[in-house]
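ok, trying the design again with the full structure, not the truncated one.
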C-alpha cells in the first residue's frame, strides 16, 4: 500500500494502547478502523460493529471549552443510550496531540456502536412519524434533552427501534414545549398538536418553523462544526426534504481536509 498523499487523511487507523492515541495503520488488521466519513467536525472510521468518531479540536477554539463540549456530548449520548435511544459508547477520550498530519492541536474520540446500513437506515420525516414522535417523547421524558438544531439526518430506524446519533447539539430541556421544539425542527407534527393541525393552524405551524429556524442561528461555540459536513449515507434519499441540513456535499477522503 502506498503512503497517503500529504493532504489526505488516513484510510486506516488503530488505537495504540501504549500511547492511548490513534495512529495511522498501513496494513489493516482485525482491529483496524476504516475511513467512512469526514466533514468539518471530524472523521468517522468503522471496524465491524464499532465506529469511532474523531472530533477535531480546532485551533481557534479554547481547549478547555472543546473538552467540556465533547464531554457534554458524551454525557447526553450515554444518558440516551441507557434508554436505547442512542448507540452505546464503548470508549472515549481526549488526546492532547495533533491528529496525524492534520493541523489541529488535539482531538476527542468516541468509539460507539455502529448502526450498520445492513440493519439501520435513516428515518426521515413522513416515513413513520408515529415512531419519530415516540422517539421525541422518550428523549424528553426519559432523558430530558432535545436536539432542536440538527436532528434531521441523525435519526435511524431498525424495525421498530429508533435511535439518534450526534449529541453534539443537544441541550437539556425541561420546559413544557420541548417536544414541540424538536418536532418543529424535524418538521413533523406530534401528539396534541397533530389533532389541531389544519389549514387554520398551518400558519401557526409556519410561525413555529420560523422560530425553529431562528434557533439555528443562535450562537453556538461549536457552530463551525455543524454545516458543510458530508453525510455520505444521506445521499440515498429525500433530497426533497427541505431542511437546513446540507446534503450533497459528498467529500471524498482526499477532499475532506480543507
Ligand atoms: N453510531 C453511528 N452509526 C452509524 N453511522 C454513524 C454513527 N456515528 C456517526 N456516524 C456517521 O458519521 C457521520 C458523522 O457523525 P456525527 O456524529 O454526525 O458527527 P458530526 O458531529 O461531525 O456531525 C454521521 O452523519 C453518520 O454518517
Ligand atoms: Mg452530525
Amino acid at each position: 500500500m502506498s503512503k497517503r498523499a500529504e493532504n489526505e487523511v488516513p484510510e486506516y487507523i488503530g488505537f495504540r494502547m501504549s500511547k492511548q492515541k490513534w495512529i495511522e495503520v498501513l496494513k489493516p488488521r482485525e482491529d483496524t478502523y476504516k475511513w467512512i466519513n469526514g466533514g468539518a467536525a471530524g472523521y468517522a472510521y468503522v471496524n465491524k460493529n464499532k465506529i469511532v468518531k474523531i472530533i477535531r479540536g480546532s485551533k481557534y477554539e479554547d481547549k478547555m471549552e472543546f473538552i467540556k463540549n465533547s464531554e457534554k456530548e458524551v454525557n447526553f449520548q450515554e444518558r440516551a443510550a441507557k434508554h436505547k435511544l442512542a448507540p452505546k459508547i464503548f470508549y472515549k477520550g481526549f488526546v492532547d496531540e495533533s491528529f496525524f498530519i492534520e493541523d489541529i492541536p488535539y482531538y476527542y474520540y468516541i468509539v460507539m456502536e455502529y448502526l450498520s446500513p445492513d440493519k439501520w437506515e435513516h428515518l426521515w420525516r413522513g416515513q413513520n412519524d408515529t415512531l419519530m414522535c415516540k422517539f421525541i417523547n422518550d428523549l424528553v421524558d426519559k432523558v430530558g434533552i432535545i436536539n432542536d438544531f440538527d436532528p434531521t439526518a441523525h435519526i435511524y430506524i431498525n424495525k421498530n427501534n429508533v435511535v439518534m446519533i450526534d449529541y453534539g447539539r443537544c441541550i437539556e430541556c425541561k420546559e413544557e414545549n420541548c417536544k414541540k421544539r424538536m418536532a418543529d425542527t424535524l418538521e413533523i407534527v406530534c401528539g396534541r398538536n397533530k389533532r389541531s393541525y389544519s389549514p387554520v393552524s398551518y400558519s401557526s405551524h409556519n410561525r413555529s418553523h420560523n422560530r425553529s429556524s431562528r434557533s439555528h442561528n443562535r450562537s453556538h461555540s461549536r457552530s463551525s462544526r455543524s454545516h458543510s459536513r458530508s453525510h455520505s449515507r444521506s445521499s440515498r434519499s429525500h433530497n426533497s426534504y427541505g431542511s437546513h441540513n446540507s446534503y450533497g456535499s459528498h467529500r471524498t477522503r482526499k477532499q475532506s481536509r480543507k
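Keeping the full-length input from now on. The chain has two domains: 12-114, 121-216.
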